[in-house]
Amino acid sequence: MLKETPNDILDIDEKLKKSPFNEKRIPSNERISMIQNNVKRAKRRSKKSFLTAAGVGLVCFIILLTLSYLNEMPGGFADQRMSQAIGLEGSNKIPLGRTPEEAIQKLRNYTSMQIIHKEPVDGGTLLFIKRAYQKDGTDLEIDYLRKTWLGWKWTWGGMFGFGGNIEGVRSVLSYMFMPKLSGINTPFPVIYGDVLDPTVNRIIIIENGANPMIYSANLAKSQTGHTIWFAYLPTSLTVPYEIRALNVIGDIVVSKTITEPNDSGLIQLPIK
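The structure corresponding to this sequence follows.
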């Protein structure tokens, strides 16, 4: 470390004598007041800019909120797109519900229904519904309900109903292909149905072609004992394709080749 010497101290004293303290360097009261006013103006400009930005943000939020409401309200933009997609003139007014079940009841005016299965999907849920108990037949409905900030809203779905067994045959599966609706965001296409034979343990969809693809179906059992099946399919799937039901050891219980794009029906076997 360098230490100051007596000569260094003397040099400093000499410099101070040659350059004494200059009082003119102290800002005047007028100058101080000017500086303070400049600072206040800068603060006011900053506050004004903040309030302007906050106001613009609030206006944008209100506009987005209004557009969202106009989109989701019954008869709004979403319902108009839905009506156009299915070729309806005018616009449906699809009601909103606090729950998926309430939304369906409002839409269908059901006095009673049985939820067989509820399947969570991106943006909402799939409901599988039986409208009534049929001793000699089967019916099943599939509906996609979307979660919005206003509540639950039906978006797309369909249903089938078939009579009882024909004499001499037994029904193993029911099925229906539910297509994707152009321009509407849904989890479709889906093929689904009832499992009517207890020996069925697995169901697969086999896409024909040079490189056949296999899609495994989900099986779901309700508390009342009904078993349903459903499989998500790619939009590129084309007919023909095969539905194949397997038992617990992998043997084929029944199979059917589908040749119609939006087919539905019963897959049956002769009673031996």
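The mean pLDDT is 82.
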